[in-house]
Design a protein that fits this description.
0% strand; globular
Length: 217
């Protein structure tokens, strides 16, 4: 919920534009683009929401294993490097199609496996589809809103039904720190992309995967 708040604050102008485009008559190309982007986000969110709901017990019971985490972190770090190397750099969000949005949404379902990284796999899909790193990252962050809100709502429902208890003071404090850290990470990451691209993130993934394999063995 803290990182969700960070994304909502950072992309508040984009989100406000999308919301207004849905309740006001479209009269400018910017409004039309905002409404289309809202549709893309809805479409791209459906696969992960459906698969996440159906496979939630499978993930919790069988996939939270350090060996799986190590392998997926390493493998999908390498896949991101390959996408960044082979992917084109010409497309921007204005050139996104319904097909692009659906493919990125399908890729996001892989993030249900621990270690795949939701932002990493959607970035990877975006780069493979020819979007520049900044556009792929922007869509990835916006796409995090529905899935994170759904996960938070599901957890809140379990709390409301008595499935868990919450100590509200540390919970809210932790949420506040998560929001601050999330906002700083978004700002730093997008700035870093403009300067040096995805290479530092790729190196981090590969190094973390190797370290986790060392822990396993």
């Amino acid at each position: 919920l803290g990182t969700l708040l960070a994304v909502l604050i950072y992309f508040r102008r984009d989100l406000t534009g999308m919301a207004l485009s849905c309740i006001q008559p479209v009269s400018t190309p910017q409004q039309a683009q905002a409404r289309t982007m809202m549709g893309f986000l809805v479409l791209a969110s459906i696969p992960a929401l459906v698969v996440g709901f159906l496979a939630r017990d499978l993930v919790e019971l069988y996939l939270r294993d350090l060996r799986i985490l190590a392998v997926t972190t390493l493998v999908f770090g390498a896949v991101l490097w390959l996408a960044d190397w082979l992917g084109g750099r010409a497309r921007t969000l204005e050139q996104m199609s319904w097909r692009h949005a659906l493919l990125i949404g399908l890729a996001q379902t892989l993030a249900l496996v621990p270690g795949v990284s939701r932002s990493g796999i959607t970035l990877t899909a975006g780069r493979f589809l020819g979007f520049d790193a900044a556009s792929a990252a922007r869509f990835s962050f916006l796409l995090s809103i529905p899935i994170t809100a759904a996960a938070g709502s599901w957890a809140a429902l379990k709390v409301a039904m008595g499935g868990a208890t919450v100590n509200w003071e540390p919970f809210l404090l932790g949420m506040g720190f998560a929001a601050l850290a999330g906002w700083a990470c978004i700002a730093a990451f997008l700035e870093l992309l403009q300067r040096v691209g995805l290479l530092p993130f790729i190196i981090y993934r590969l190094a973390l995967g190797i370290f986790l394999l060392w822990l396993v063995f």
